[in-house]
């Protein structure tokens, strides 16, 4: 009972049961990155998400461009055996009240999906068609973009660059960028000879959630290995190399010890010489 005569509500508990302390969680208790990671863990592995780093771009990949008046996606027409730019507005369901945002778009056909594979030990990637016999997206030195090669080489390598807003640019082996260009008749086509990144060179890229997690796990493993293999630079330099053009640099204490050892060594040598001289004089 409280001082004012009111009965305090109490919770029944068994003898020996530990009392749990309540923890008041504040809004700023967790970082936005932690909340985002937890949200991604709760997502289905096949959920289409935006990459935050270039290393996350792998596996099934959906590439879009916010063209006007209709956003487009990079598609491979297996019937004609060539790459085309497909209008996403054609995929809108009839009777839809509001247009779907480009960031909410997901592939509706297998032909809209590319398979991204990474080159081991390199920041570059290969983009292969998800349908047909599997052709690689390539660009020659003249900036002509195609998807008709079954083997991959330098012209089939792309370096993705992720910008702070989440958009991605693709740089080829000639250090030029992939871009959407308007050709004769108002049609759109791909080219790969842009020197700078502007609106035409920036794409929205979506990958599946499980491949993004895979990239995070690999990054954690790398960080763990780096933490284990730690090198004491001072001791390593002292043991394996000499500084100052071959001269070992030592501390004041070390120099004192060296002087003392040399002095004791000289005294010992003098005593030995003295004894040898006395012995020789005795036998003469």
Automatic annotation (TrEMBL):
Highest taxon above the source species: Eukaryota
InterPro entries recorded: Actin-crosslinking (IPR008999), FRG1 (IPR010414)
Keywords: Nucleus
Subcellular location: Nucleus, Nucleolus
Region named Disordered: 1-51
CDD domains in the record: beta-trefoil_FSCN_fungal_FRG1-like
Residue ranges with Basic residues bias: 8-24
Entry GO CC: catalytic step 2 spliceosome; nucleolus
Gene Ontology terms, MF aspect: actin filament binding
Protein family: Belongs to the FRG1 family.
PANTHER family: FRG1 PROTEIN, FSHD REGION GENE 1
Protein name (record): Actin-crosslinking protein
